[in-house]
Amino acid sequence: RLAIRPAIVFAIINQESGYDTNALGDNGDSYGLMQVQPKHHYGRMVELNCTNLYNPIQNTTVGINYLFELTQKDKGIVWALMAFNGGEKYANKMTAAGQISEYAETIINEAERLDTYVLQR
């Protein structure tokens, strides 16, 4: 089983919300740190007993659970990041075209920067 690197999670949070627990995006459809959309993740929220997406623990629980589910499809972290951001069809289309989204590239680069920073401490 794969694990989600903490640096990946922090990079997603930085990109999605700038660490603003009260972030509201996508015309009011995405909430909190990882910009979770209840319309797509309501079942996951119920399963994980998460009712408040402005709560940082609940929001990251849902977001990490979703990202973990995507990584279990064994298509790699880049594919999982593209799917997290744009859906599985989008990730499949990008992969088939041999492309990496700017979003996935940004997350990977930021995670590597964070890992390097930690190692230098």
How would you summarize this macromolecular structure in one to three sentences?
The chain has 121 residues and is mainly alpha-helical. The protein is built from six helices and two strands, in the order αββααααα.
Task: Give a description of the structure.
With 121 residues, this protein is mainly α. It has helices spanning 6-17, 38-47, 56-71, 77-86, 88-96, 102-120; strands at residues 24-25, 30-31. Strands 1-2 form a two-stranded antiparallel sheet. Strand 1 (24-25) and strand 2 form a beta hairpin. The mean pLDDT is 95.
| Tally of individual helices | 6
Mean pLDDT figure: 95
The rough form would be described as: globular
Q: What's the end-to-end separation, in Å?
A: 29 Å
- Give the total of beta strands: 2
Radius of gyration: 14 Å
Residue stretches low in confidence (pLDDT < 50, at least 5 long) are none
**Biggest sheet descriptor:** 2 strands, antiparallel
Strand content: under 5%
The strands making up the biggest β-sheet line up spatially as: 1-2
SSE order: HEEHHHHH
Structural class: mainly alpha
DSSP helix fraction: 55-70%
Note the topology.
Elements lengths: L5 H12 L6 E2 L4 E2 L6 H10 L8 H16 L5 H10 L1 H9 L5 H19 L1
Antiparallel strand pairs: 1-2
